[in-house]
Design brief:
The complex is a heterodimer of chains A (408) and B (129). By secondary structure, chain A is mostly beta strands. Chain A is 7% helix and 33% strand. Chain B is mainly α. Chain B has a domain at 38-107: Orthogonal Bundle (Cytochrome Bc1 Complex, Chain D, domain 2), CATH 1.10.760. Chain B has six helices and one strand; from the N terminus they run αβααααα. Classes of the chains: A mainly beta (408), B mainly alpha (129). β1 of chain A pairs parallel with β1 (24-25) of chain B, so a sheet runs across the interface.
């Protein structure tokens, strides 16, 4: 596909929200935003700009699922306007900041709280952390044989500096009974059909009380964009984005495990398939365990516009990340894995962040066809040569391989 | 709530220009394929999601896959679909979104062994080696 085959797609949706059709279809006229959308389409590649966003790769229009084009991963922090968007349900409410309340309670809470956004900012210390938010199914579209589900490429992830309050501080204010085992989260978005399971997720107590787990109101120094969770989202550094609920408006302390579809059926994998350090034992069965940690991974980001590298000419750089053990090394192979060369690591923004890496081109003997990248973390975990097949296509962390075009 | 501003629209527009594109045209949400079963699809499936969920599976949309999908929509997501309607929907999906059609329409988009996903770079997908 070449540039001259692209054409502009301009969508003028005056008076119609990007989720407006969903609301209408469900008999729920919840208009999110009247907007002008601009994008471009080329074959099956469709780039569309949601309100407040640059053009992202559209997987689905409703509910909206959009991934970040690879070029935005050349900076260590992913710009808010390019950050990926993932929704399970199509009814996305318009939330007025001044009316918003965060309700905290549940059977294992000593008392119930109802907090405004002003209360959160005034009554609880603010804290910041840089962390990768990555969909469990990022790169699902790269599995062979294919796996059903959203066919993500590399872009269902982003790295941001999150600012908010510690979940532990909120739970301390509410008071936890000794019976508390999990903390669950519900949010303002909803399915069009009443019978569809609402998207509710829970965390084990140890992760909910971890000082790095936040209820965030800002990313990269600005309020959360609407499609990224305005006004509040859960931030669970090191764990996949399924736990990072957007538009979160209810936090419940539970004295029994959360048993809805999204916990007991979705986001689960055969046990022991991945070397998890932080697990969720209360949700494990004999055969299956919830996806928890982000697998160690890396990405080459310095490709030319055609997606290839030019030997000796293109920059050689990219990013690496893991669940918070910290990146130990990134290596490149120019001979299909026969030998590996260590890269130089860039600035360290903390263990949960993308880490930029770069390399020079080696002196090459013979023809060069591909460059491979792989990362390992400080816990000794490393990427795999071929992705680990699993029924739902989670945790794809095979080496990144990029084709090299001969010099011309 | 943040609203789209003229600045952001302008940025998007500049980005579109920067990516080397031609004249604008107007499109709406992708439409379901015409033919028998389309009305039922719109009535039972489009209530919750757009057709692009279907299109992205077309390259491996076997009857088995569509049966599993419709079953999941009924059992897990409580879509109000009768047994008879389920059969009609699977027929429609298989007829219109099977791998044969996918190969015909996306022949240039098949996955390459080198794992650059289709359309992930500014310049689109990698050329075949």
């Amino acid at each position: 596909m070449t540039l001259n085959r692209r054409d502009v797609t301009t969508r003028l949706l005056a008076g119609m929200a990007w989720t407006g059709f969903a609301g209408a279809a469900a008999g729920l006229p919840r208009k999110l935003l009247a907007a002008t959308q601009q994008g471009l389409a080329a074959g099956r590649e469709v780039l569309v700009a949601l309100p407040g966003k640059v053009a992202l790769r559209r997987l689905t229009e409703r509910p909206p699922n959009f991934e970040t084009p690879l070029e935005y991963f050349r900076s260590v922090l992913t710009p808010n306007e390019a950050f990926f968007v993932r929704y399970h349900h199509a009814v996305i409410p318009e939330i007025a900041a001044e009316d918003f309340r965060l309700e905290i309670g549940g059977p294992a809470a000593e008392r119930s709280l109802s907090l405004s956004l002003a209360d959160l900012r005034r009554d609880f210390p603010a804290t910041e952390i840089v962390a990768v938010c990555q969909c469990s199914g990022n790169r699902r579209g790269l599995f062979e044989p294919p796996v059903a589900g959203l066919q993500w490429g590399h872009g269902a992830m982003g790295n941001a500096r999150w600012r908010g309050v510690r979940l532990a501080d909120l739970l301390q204010r509410a008071g936890l009974k000794s019976s508390a085992v999990e903390i669950s989260f519900d949010a303002a978005d909803a399915p069009p059909l009443e019978g569809t399971p609402d998207f509710i997720k829970s965390l084990p107590l140890v992760k909910a009380l971890h000082p790095d787990t936040l209820i965030a109101y800002e990313m990269n120094g600005a309020p959360l964009p609407v499609p990224n969770g305005f006004p509040l989202r859960v931030v669970v550094p090191g764990w996949t984005a399924t736990y990072w609920l957007k538009h979160v408006n209810r936090i419940s302390a539970l004295d029994a495990s959360e048993k809805n579809f999204w916990m007991t059926s979705a986001y689960r994998m055969p046990r022991q398939l991945f070397p998890l350090v932080e697990r969720f034992p209360g949700q494990e069965t004999a055969e299956r365990a919830p996806v928890t940690e982000i697998a160690v991974n890396s990405l080459i980001t310095s490709m030319e516009r055609d997606g290839t590298l030019r030997a000796g000419r293109s920059a050689l750089s990219g990013i690496a990340w893991d669940a918070g053990r910290g990146i130990d090394r990134v290596e490149l192979s120019f001979d299909r894995g026969a030998s590996w060369r260590r890269c130089e690591l860039g600035e360290d923004l903390g263990p949960y962040s993308f880490r930029i890496w770069r390399s020079d081109w080696p002196t090459l003997a013979g023809d060069l066809h591909e460059v491979w990248a792989r990362a390992a973390n400080k816990a000794g975990q490393s990427q795999v040569e071929t992705p680990i097949a699993n029924p739902s296509g989670y945790q794809h962390n095979a080496y990144h391989r990029v084709r090299v075009e001969a010099q011309s | 709530m943040r609203r789209p501003t003229a600045t952001i629209s302008l940025l998007s527009f500049l980005m579109v220009l920067a990516m080397g594109v031609a004249a604008p045209r107007v499109v709406a949400e992708p439409e379901a394929a015409a033919g028998e079963g389309r009305e039922l699809f719109v009535a039972r499936c489009s209530v919750c999601h757009s057709i692009d969920y279907i299109e992205m599976h077309a390259r491996f949309g076997t009857r088995t896959l569509w049966e599993a999908s419709v079953t999941k929509m009924r059992n897990a997501f409580k879509a109000p679909i009768t047994d008879d309607e389920a059969r009609q929907l699977v027929d429609y999906l298989q007829r219109n979104y099977g791998p044969t059609r996918a190969q015909r329409t996306t022949a240039s988009s098949s996955m390459s062994n080198t794992s650059v996903a289709p359309g992930l770079t500014a310049g689109g997908e990698p050329r075949s080696p």
